[in-house]
């Protein structure tokens, strides 16, 4: 898992992502109003948030595989970059168009952009076998 300095540099953001995304997915799927200013009123809204939960958990599984299995690492790094930058950039668009969200989403935007950018560093730093 984290045996060398290179392992730490390459995988630490995957571990941080999993530690944040799994609990967030469960909150989104079962009780988003407990932590966020989200109030779901229809079955379709509930269904959409359960789908988001599934998507988040699916990516988390891929990142866990990348942490523990070398043959999944590059895919895990690339998917984490796309996931985090996609969320972060989408939130920046919302910030510009919709206004300022709650602190949790402001912090999330910064964290997602940082994790995505760090993923680029990790992807470039890691030495992959030919």
From TrEMBL:
Per the record, the domain of life is: Bacteria
Query: Is this entry keyworded ATP-binding?
Result: no
| Keyword set, alphabetical order | Membrane, Transmembrane, Transmembrane helix
Task: Using the record for this protein, list the coiled-coil segments as residue ranges, or answer none.
Answer: none
Q: Which InterPro entries would you find in this protein's record?
A: DUF4345 (IPR025597)
Transmembrane stretches, by residue range? 12-31, 51-68, 75-97, 103-123
- Pfam families linked to this entry: DUF4345 (PF14248)
Q: Does the keyword Iron apply?
A: no
Under which name does UniProt file this protein?
A: DUF4345 domain-containing protein
Q: Which organism is it from?
A: Winogradskyella flava
């Amino acid at each position: 898992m984290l045996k060398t300095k290179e392992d730490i540099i390459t995988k630490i953001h995957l571990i941080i992502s999993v530690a944040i995304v799994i609990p967030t997915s469960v909150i989104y799927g079962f009780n988003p109003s407990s932590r966020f200013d989200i109030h779901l009123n229809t079955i379709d809204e509930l269904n959409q948030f359960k789908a988001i939960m599934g998507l988040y958990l699916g990516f988390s599984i891929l990142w866990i595989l990348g942490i523990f299995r070398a043959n999944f690492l590059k895919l895990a790094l690339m998917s984490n970059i796309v996931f985090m930058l996609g969320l972060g950039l989408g939130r920046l668009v919302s910030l510009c168009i919709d206004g300022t969200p709650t602190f949790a989403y402001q912090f999330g935007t910064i964290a997602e952009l940082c994790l995505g950018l760090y993923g680029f560093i990790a992807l470039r730093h890691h030495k992959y076998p030919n």
